[in-house]
């Protein structure tokens, strides 16, 4: 079975200039853990995930602390999140994108998803976005098979 | 003659590459060691015998214990608790953070201390909206000073203690009081250097630090109790280890094993945190120095030092202190100390000096030299890198401008201390 039969044919994506505030809004509305970043030709040039945005929203020292639970308030998290809200997807997206061609086999795609611990993979046709693949849609497809 | 030349080339190349840090230092030390064996200057048996397993055992034992205690959150708790004593005074904050860093560093290795303390400092500084640079630099200096205080504080002391049969208490009696004085003086010096930063008012923002709940830093209270009991017992046994006829490595490994037993933590998990790379670095260097010693270079160097100092004990001791301090500002203090141990043994054998003051001079020089440049000690690099990740770039020159004077002042004070205590 090819990936084009398994993928979600959802073309929701953002451009590199989309503000983070907008990216987060789309993610939240569409209940997506990440979004492909495309150029004007719909070529995938990056991917931005919830995790990229969360990491950027944390004050720098959070990542260094063994356990930050002694800090009582949410102030610095919210300050930092507000600071990055107007920056664009370009600033936080991952440019090394793992994508799969729509004709890729399920096995090959599953291998990529699970080995690289990816939560979302753009499906492309000649570099252009045609859908997305997630671990859950792959599992759903397998489980619902006769 | 050929063997001497080959040994010298391997030795100098090893030292230079270890200090340049372009290639992993452990790989370099192991290459040097293997060359001595492959070129038949040492045989495998001699190489094995050259490794000081008392040093390796002590390091391993302490690494295991610290990796377990670290999980409890105790060190974060202590750092926050003591910072709160500053009560909104920026100099007191600098003072208390430096002192706790020095004290922790005297029982933990310097890098671990910096990894634990600097993030807390960053959190405090961010809340106070002040630059963390003066505080973090002071902590780096304090970690090197504190490390000098005890047998287990810094690798050069572990090497010296093992080679010279100096006990935990010998270090506590001879070095710790002086290290404490240096530690207390340090924040005053840093204040002189960062007058503008130290004049900032942090009273209004202090409320945010007061809100830090240090109790929440304790992650595992049960493990904390067990760890503290075993750790204190280990320190207690360290105090009497010579009287009990126990080597330091036995004490540290017994403590580590007991802690593994009572904590029920999977040893495989703990061993992942043991710095095997550091241990193999030591092993490689011990073999390299044994090779150099076997061909007679160490003996030649020792004879030269005796001729140069004309057998004058005071001059020899102070020369060891100053050469060590300056050398260890630029080259790795572990390789330097391992090289100097046989030299000092030879000087002792040829002159019948009471070598203890010379060992203290080597210890102070090697540990305090670490403050001279940011490449001098691993803790410096780790601290500077954490700052870099926060967007605060400290260049070699930035560090040198404050590190060199601190190193020189501490070596001058060490000269005075050694002179009045042992040489007068």
List the keywords:
heterodimer, A: 146 residues, alpha+beta, CBS-domain, three-stranded mixed beta sheet, two-stranded antiparallel sheet, 5 strands, 36% helix, B: 424 residues, mainly alpha, 23 helices, 77% helix, 0% strand, globular
What would you say this structure looks like, in words?
The complex is a heterodimer of chains A (146) and B (424). With 146 residues, chain A is an alpha+beta fold. Chain A has a single domain (3-143), classed as CBS-domain, CATH 3.10.580.10. Helices cover 36% and strands 16% of the residues of chain A. Chain A has six helices and five strands. Chain A has helices at 20-30, 50-57, 75-85, 89-92, 106-115, 135-143; strands spanning 34-38, 44-49, 100-101, 121-125, 128-133. In chain A, a hairpin with a 5-residue loop joins strand 1 (34-38) and strand 2 (44-49). The radius of gyration of chain A is 17 Å and the shape is globular. Chain A starts with 19 loop residues before the first helix and ends with a helix. Chain B is mainly α. Helices cover 77% and strands 0% of the residues of chain B. Chain B is built from 23 helices and no strands. Chain B has helices at residues 2-20, 25-38, 44-50, 53-72, 74-83, 90-107, 110-128, 133-148, 155-164, 168-174, 176-193, 195-198, 206-210, 221-239, 248-263, 267-271, 276-294, 297-308, 313-327, 333-351, 356-368, 378-389, 396-423. In chain B, helix 3 packs across helix 17 and helix 6 (90-107) runs antiparallel to helix 11 (176-193). The two termini of chain B are 42 Å apart. The model of chain B has no long low-confidence stretch (mean pLDDT 93).
Task: Please give a quick description of this structure.
The complex is a heterodimer of chains A (146) and B (424). Chain A has six helices and five strands, in the order αββαααβαββα.
